[in-house]
Design a protein that fits this description.
This protein is of the alpha/beta class.
Length: about 750
Amino acid sequence: MKLTSARLFVFVFALSVVLLFPSPSSESKQATNVEARVNALLAKMTLEEKLGQLQQLDGEGEGNYRPEHVELLKKGVLGSTLNVRGAKKTNELQRVAVEQSRLKIPNLFGYDVIHGYRTIFPIPLAEASSWDPSVAERSASIAASEAYATGLRWTFAPMVDIARDPRWGRITEGAGEDTFLGSAFARARVLGFQGRDYSAPGKILACAKHYVAYGAAEGGRDYNTTDMSEQRLREVYLPPFHAAVDAGVGTLMSAFNDLNGVPASGNPFTLTKILRGEWKFDGFVVSDYNSVLELISHGLAGNNHDAAEAGLNAGVDMEMVSRLYNENGATLLKEGKVSQATIDEAVRRILRIKFRLGLFEHPYVDEAAENSSILTAANRAAAREASGKSMVLLKNDRGTLPLNKTISSLAVIGPLADDPRAPMGFWSADGKDTDTVTALAGIRAKVSPQTKVTYAKGCDITGDSTSGFDEAVNAARQADIALVFAGEAKEMVGEAASRSSLDLPGKQMDLLKAIHATGKPTILVLINGRPPTIGWAVDNVPAILEAWMGGTEAGNAIADVLFGDVNPGGKLPVTFPRTVGQVPLYYNHMNTGRPPVADVRWNSKYIDGPWTPQFPFGFGLSYTQFKISDLQLSAPTIRPDGRLNVSVNVQNTGQRAGDEVVQLYIRDVAASMTRPVKELKGFKRITLKPGETQRVEFTLGPDHLGFYNREMKYVVEPGEFKVFVGSSSEDVIEKSFVVR
Ligand code: GLC
C-alpha cells in the first residue's frame, strides 16, 4: 500500500490516540467486570439469600461439615464455613452450593492456617525473630499451597496485633512489640498467602486480625479491656493492618476486645471511618468467633436484636458462628434500624471477594492432588530453614557453642527435649505431632555414631515432682556436656493462655540448677512461645539459645544451630523482662520527665530491682562477631518533605560466616507531642564472610519521621532528630540531623 502523507497523518493520529488513551488495563477491566457481576448477582438475591451470605458457621473438629450446612447451602443461605476441610469433603459440600442452590453462590471454606497447614513452621513470633520478612512470606506461601490442596480458600491469618505484654498468650501469634517490624511481617505474610492474585492455584485469601488493638489487653489477660489515646491507636496498633490492606489483604477479622468503650466488633470509628473512609478497604470484615453476640456481654447491646444492629451498622460484614444477623436482619430492616444499603454493601463486599478469588470459575479442588502437596520434603526443608533463621543466641560465654559433632557423650535433659507437641505451637492446623522432629531426635541424627547420647526427662513441664532429678543429674555427671531443654507446653501459649508469671513452669528451673550443680558445662535451650524470665540462668549458665516453638522440623534446626551447621542470626522482636513486675516493658517508650538514672533516687525506677530489660528489643548474638562503624548521613539538615540517606560499614571480625541484622532507629528530640526515645525505621539482615565488610544504606523520609499531632494530623515537625544504627536497640552508634 502506497504510504501517502494523508495515510501517514491518519496512522500517526490513531497511534497517538491509542497511546494517550490506552484501553483500560486488563486489571481495571477485570475490576469493572467483577463489580458488574457483583451487582448483577445482588439484584437477583432475596433478603434471605443476602442475609445468608453474611453467615459463617462452624464445622466439626475433624473437618466434617454438618447436615445443617447442606440444608442451608441448598437454600442458598450460607456464605462460609470454618474448619470444614479436606478435598473430598469440601467438594461434596461445594457441589450442593454450586449445583443445587438457586443462585449457585459458592461457599467460602476458611480455617486457621496461622503458621502452616500440615507442615508446621515456627510460630510467628519466632519467624519475626529472623528479621527477614522473606522467611515469613515463604512459610505463608507453602502453608497456602497445602491448605489449598485440601479445599480451603481462606485463612484467618496473619495475626498482626502488636503486643507489648508477654503475659498475653497470643503474643506468640504475632510479630512482637514493634510497629515497623510488625508492618513488614504483615505485608510479607499477606503476600505469601495471597500472592499478587489470590485466584491463582495454590493461593488463598488472607485475613488480617484482630482488628484492632486486641494485644493491648489490660493485665495481659486475653479478651480484656483495651483503652488508649487515638494517637497510640494510630501510631502503634493500626499501622500493621494498614500495611496488610496496602498489600491487598482481602479480609480483616474484628476483635473481641472493648476499645475505648466501644468494642472492636461494634466500632464504627475503626471499622468504617478509618478502614473504609481513610484506607478505602473494599474487602470484607468477618467477626471473631461469636464476637457479635458478645456485644451483649460487653454491655454495648441489651439483646440479640441490638447486637446485630450494632455489628451491621459498625461495618462487620460476616458473622462468625453466632446468627444474630440472620435472626434479626429482616426486623432491623423493617424498623429502619439497618438500611437496605447497609445490608447490600455487606453482601457486595463478600461477593466481590468471592469473585476475585475465582470461586465462581473454580469452586472445586483437585482431590487427586491433595496428598502429594502436603508435608513434602521441600516443605519440611523450608520449615527447617525458617526455624534455623528464627533462633536467637542469648548467651555464649567462652565459645561454649557450637558443639562438636564428634563429642564423646551428651546428656539431653528436660521435658521439652522430646516433646513432639510443644514445637507446633498453639495453632497447628492439621499438623500432627507424629510428624515432629524433636530436639532429641535432631541431636541423635546430627552427632557421630560414636557419640553417646543419654536422655533424661528430669521433670514434667508443670507440676512439683522432682522424682526424675536423680536420673537427670546422673546422666549429666556421666556426659561431657549437658543440654537442658526447658520452656512451655503447647497449651500454655496462644488464645486464652495468659500467664501471671513468666517463670519457667513447674520445676524446670530447679532441674537446670541441679544439672548446673554437677559442674558439667550446661547449655539451656528454650522451647517456648513468649518471653520468659530466666534471670538465674542468665547469671549462671554459659550458653542460652532461644529456639522458640520451631515447628515440625524444630529438632533438626536446633541441632543445625547447636552443632554449627547454622550460625544463629536472629534478634528479639520483643523485650525480655527480668521480672513480670516490670511489664509492660518495651524499647520504644517515652522518656518521661525523670528517666531512670542509677544511684539517684527521685526518678522513674524500682526500689527493689533493675528497671532495665534482661535482653533488649533487637538483641541477638552470633557465633562470629560484627563491627558497625562509620555512620554517615547524606546531609546535616533536610526539609520536612526531604529524604536523608543513612549508611554504615558492617564488618565480620570473627572466624566464621554469619548474619547480622543492622537496625536503624530514630528519635525526634523535641516536638509538639512527646516522642519515643527510639523508633525502629529500618532493618537489614545481611550475611558476611569472615573479614568481609559491607556498606549498608537506609533512606529516611516523611513517612519515617512524622507522627500524629494534637489535631490528629500526620506531621513532620522541624527540629533535631537523632539517628541510631546498631545490632540491637541498645548497642548503637548515633548521629544527629535537623529538619528545617
Ligand atoms: C478464635 C480466634 C481467632 C480465630 C477464630 C476462628 O476465637 O480469636 O483468631 O481465627 O476464633 O477459629
